[in-house]
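The protein record quoted in full:

***
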Amino acid sequence: MARKANTEGADSAENAGRLKQIALTYKMTRRSDPKVGLVVAGVGIITFGVLLAIGFLIGHPVYAGILGFVLAFLAMAIIFGRRAERAAFGQMEGQPGAAAAVLDRVGRGWTTTPAVAMNRSQDVVHRAVGKAGIVLVAEGNPNRVKSLLAAEKRRMARIVVDVPVHDIIVGDGEGQVPLKKVRTTMLKLPRVLTGPQVTAANDRLRAMGDLMSNMPLPKGPMPKGMRMPRGGKMR
């Protein structure tokens, strides 16, 4: 009996925490997207209304209404998730280390390593390894990050000669990829490696060592006042 009560209490606490997280996400999204509530509600109402109308036409309004309610909730969740993600990217854009936070959300099959190369101006290169190969994501001054990318490619060429390497420079200029499109750009890359090949590439790169391997790095955007330690190796 006590065990059942404890389980119910844990479930209630988990649900309360989840609702609180949704509320906080909504407030954050609404700051940069004031119409998010109207849009999400509109999607739900239209979806439910269309399914209900179809139900009346085919003579099964109850079943269609139940299905419409479920699909409306699903559509609202998808639209809210996308707009919340867009709002989060908008708030992160321009902050040092924002691309590292995006790479953490790329999804399964990718191994990401933040800040494999950095200079004193806080231009930084992050690395992701997946079935598309190696993706180097650079953020900072476009002219300076090109030299960082070139140096990192030369360093890796001695270790992973048989793995394709792609590079992305985050930004809104010509030849650059906006922060909010980094994830979709990576997912569109052709998959040319098998699972064992990805594992082997990760092992070789890990053995090579990284700039930040011995330096604690907070998740998400880096603090603006962050500087490289004097003893750190610069690229």
User: Anything to note?
Assistant: The helical segments are 2-32, 36-58, 61-92, 98-103, 142-157, 182-187, 195-208. The longest strand covers residues 111-118. Strands lie at 111-118, 124-130, 133-139, 165-169. Residues 212-219, 223-235 have pLDDT under 50 and may be disordered.
